[in-house]
Amino acid sequence: MRSYFWFLLICLLISCAKSVEEKKTFSEEKTSTPSEETELSSQKRVDKKVKSNPVTQIKADPNELKSLPDATLVDITKYSDEFTLNIKYATSDNFLKTAVYDCAACYVRAPVAVALIKANNELMKLGYRLQFFDCYRPHSVQKKMWEIFPKPGYVANPRGGSIHNKGAAVDLTITTLEGLPIDMGSAYDHFGWESHHAYANLIDEVKQHRTLLKETMLAFDFKTIRTEWWHYNYVGGRRYPISDFKWNCTEDEE
Ligand SMILES: [Zn+2]
To answer: Where is this site: Transition state stabilizer (predicted)?
Structure first.
């Protein structure tokens, strides 16, 4: 009887050991399956990519804009990456034939940024997005532009300044969602009848593009000016002071 008891006990121990071994093998197989390994490491790569993406790191909550003091000048690209920038005055591809900005940036007053983000969201539902040619323009740059091209109607006299100097005017167009240009009937800063809102000798497609941009901007508290299809003033934007803040062109370079 005693030997039978020992026999049973030994059998039980062997069986337990075998079961543990099987479980171990199974779990090892499970973690070392090549396809899962690949998936796991590629997932790690994705996570790493997201974390190291500088655009993600600098992004701020657009709702924060509403709690900022009214006159805060903000870099709109820190609150939305849905716009594209084509800042002509940071290049020599403009009517002055020289760059007057050290680098491209789009700063506007906080409420102006809120309105632009809303307008862009509406346009994106229709397959378009906003592209900026010019936003806030420091007063010293206005003076520089006036020195190069002192012609009222082309450049605002720095004595009175421009709404651009107040951070409440934008020069912009619409592009496709992919950022491809769309025919607006005349180039940016083309100072001729073709750029006027009332100019009617345009093909229907161009008229539709201008109407879409205009109606969207008007719906989000912007006003047109008669002579430039690309220029919009924020309603009440004259209340802001003329500023000479200059954006840092090196802060994002590492
Ligand atoms: Zn303008």
So the answer is: 137
